[in-house]
Amino acid sequence: MTKAIILTVLLAGLIVIGSSTSALGAQLDSRINPNNAESPFKISYLKTVFVEYPNGGDLFDALGGAEWTTSGTADATNPGVRELITKLNNGIKSDGSQAQISDLNVSYDFHLKGRNIQTSIDYRVILEGTITNYVITEDTQKKLIDLGWRGLTTTSPIQIDGIEINIPLGILETEEPILYKTFVGTEAENILNRELINADFILEQPLTNWHFLFDPTGINADASTFGLDDEIKGFVVSSWTMGESSLREGRQVERVFEAEVMADELYIVRSVQSSDQANLYTIGFGALDILDGIEIVGVTPTPPAEFMTTSTGGFPIMIIYGMAGLAAVAGIGFFFISSRSMKKQSVGQQGIDPSDLVGYQTSASSGGYQTNRGEAQLKSDTNYKTTRNVYDAAPETTQETTENKKGGALPKGFETKAEPESTKSSKGKLPKGF
Fold it and tell me: Is the pTM of this model over 0.70?
């Protein structure tokens, strides 16, 4: 019964995994060089919309088995990309940051896959560009870097070569007019009008909740990723990583919006977008701070003297060593106490005393070959009746024996039978009939 339940759960999991699509949220990756006027960044936006038709209907007839893909790329020479740069820079400015996007390349990919019970639409937009004006101030020892630009978001429609890339409902108007007409004017329209290009959560998550690491030798191995040469050896690389869901970093869950639409049949629309992720790197050792409500990082070429930290920052490494030492002492104490307890609980000889056993040979020679087999038996069988196997006991039987005239028992086969009274002779008289 247990095996059947386990197999059922595994099969259900495979069905769910096989019929669903990963819907990651915004994913930001940026490597900032304080010594340069601009640095690269890359951010991806992903979302999946499911349209379910459990009772069939017109959408089942139109979408069942359908499949198409719309994709394309564009650079800053495209009017739609230039409009997107303007919208993003306006959003960065409204967040209080002075940084600006100077160049941008856009790639988009929308994929619809129709199935018997539902249709999935995967939306993906990838922005790769350069960020400038991120250095607030600098001196000979430290530079202040603006990190308040990371919430790259726009709520405006963005058209590139006639394709709407920010509002999920827009692509349906072009590719699936039946689906578009079914959802316009319903609660599903509000869900599908939620913008795709949204990284607000990356900005809302304080950098103090991100995991911090620094690598004193990282620039030697990763110089090419920053477009640098070996002349800057000796600098460190600091990194902040966001995406973990915990008590400290906060609970991060999928953003799911669902609506029911009653047309010719009941249809269910569900938009799924998971929590955002981000990785920020800077050359130099970074110390977080806040300036006029904007999160900044003070960068120095090397870390402060005797600075020690873990991935979450500010936790002395000597405490870790101390905890490891305490664990070792506790382990030694545990084994010592266990050994003493076992000695106290030890008992003497159990079972038959070896001194009461005697060995004898059981093998026999065959020609010139002799084995040395033997077995042990008790020297005395005094206590045999108290230790023998009860199943070895055989019922006692009595056998009648015929004794001879001298009182001895006759051998088997020589017993005599008693003669009948009528055949016995008396004193000198012959038996009857003689």
Answer: no
